[in-house]
Amino acid sequence: DGSEPNIVVAIIDSGLDTAHPDAPAYLWTNDKEVAGNGVDDDNNGYIDDVQGWNFVDNNSDVTDHKGHGTVVAGIIAAKRNNGIGIAGINPGAIIMPLKVTDKDGNTSNLHIFRAINYAVDHGARVINVSLGGRGISKLEQSAVTYANSKGVFVTTAAGNVNENIGEHGPASSQGAFAVGSLDIEGTRSTISCPSTPAIFLSG
Q1: Taking a C-beta distance cutoff of 8 angstroms, is the pair 90, 120 a contact?
Q2: What angle do CA 150, 153, 154 make, to 5 degrees?
Q3: Is the pLDDT at 86 greater than 90, yes or no?
Q4: 174/155 Cα distance (integer angstroms)
Q5: Shortest CA distance to 7 belongs to which of 77, 55, 82, 64?
Q6: Is the pLDDT confidence value at 198 over 60?
Q7: Per-residue CA distances from 81 to 4, 44, 64, 71 (Å)
Q8: Beta-carbon contacts of residue 199 (< 8 Å; ≥ 6 apart)
Q9: pLDDT tier for residue 203 given thresholds of 50, 70 and 90
Q10: I need a surface site. Which of 59, 83, 108, 161 has the fewest CB within 10 A?
Q11: Between the CA of residue 76 and those of 8, 61, 177, 191, what are the distances in Å?
Q12: Average pLDDT along the chain
């Protein structure tokens, strides 16, 4: 019910607007790092990574210039019973924002690879990757495999271009849980990438 924090969920996306009035109540903190001292206190290769990391600019600024990551964070963990916006699926989730896209929404499989590995190594139990693109990446597969080996659940977006999911990464990565979209009738929406055969769950 969000009254107390539960599990760490890493959101690999465009960042997070921490000042949003309906932002998640609980943000992940790297308690081994001292904020703003310019020193890699925990020797993990990231300086001042107190509340996530920006893999695009290689710094600790996870400001969301696109908005997508903030929306995803809200769906997962927006505050409940505050009279604002929505209630997240799990308002007790501790959100770890990992920025991998620029202001136009562009990223690389190297950014995604590094972000997934960072999330696993820093205690995330669930990793959400609501992005992707055409082509299969061995880097992305390697990261998902590593997450699975540590018992971390990785969920990805199936894709919004109505093409075979098997040709898109990281959705087609073995061990990733790809999520598509349904229309109002409960059938696959016309944009959502199908698998072969297409299997969609509705509730």
Answers
A1: no
A2: 110
A3: yes
A4: 11
A5: 77
A6: no
A7: 14, 38, 25, 18
A8: none
A9: very low
A10: 83
A11: 11, 21, 16, 22
A12: 93
CA gap 11, 53 in Å, rounded: 11
Whether the pLDDT of residue 49 is over 70: the answer is yes
Residues whose CB falls within 8 Å of the CB of residue 94, separated by 6 or more in sequence, listed in order: 5, 6, 7, 8, 9, 26, 27, 28
pLDDT category, 196, cuts 50, 70, 90?
Answer: low
pLDDT bin (cut points 50, 70, 90) of residue 200 is very low
SS3 track for the chain: CCCCCCCEEEEEECCCCCCCCCCECEECCCCCCCCCCCCCCCCCCCCCCCCCEECCCCECCCCCCCCHHHHHHHHHHECCCCCCCCCCCCCCCEEEEEECCCCCCCCCHHHHHHHHHHHHHCCCCEEEECCCEEECCHHHHHHHHHHHHCCCEEEEECCCCCCCHHHEECCCCCCCEEECCECCCCCECCCCCCCCCCCCCCC
